[in-house]
Write a structure and sequence with these properties.
single chain; 81 residues; alpha+beta; Glutaredoxin; 4-stranded mixed beta sheet; 38% helix; globular
């Protein structure tokens, strides 16, 4: 288990890419958890989003959301430096 946890809803557009492999390869300190539902259905239907250590991170596109997730991970990891 990583020190940064990224939760992704399986029905969100982020689930269409291999986000687990992408993030866990790039950040060994990260654990990506795919969940059947994160209970943000309105948000999930409109934009790509995930939770990084419980904080919602979103973007208009998959690429933008992935960039925002990376930034949030780096912010979380900076607390341990």
């Amino acid at each position: 288990m990583g020190i940064v946890v990224v939760d992704v809803c399986q029905t969100n557009l982020l689930a269409t890419i291999d986000i687990e492999e992408i993030l866990e390869e790039e950040f060994p300190e990260v654990a990506v958890l795919m969940n059947s539902c994160l209970s943000f259905c309105g948000l999930c239907a409109r934009v790509c989003f995930a939770q990084v250590n419980g904080k919602i991170v979103h973007g208009k596109t998959i690429e933008q959301c992935l960039d925002n997730i990376r930034a949030a991970i780096k912010k979380e990891l900076a607390q341990y430096d």
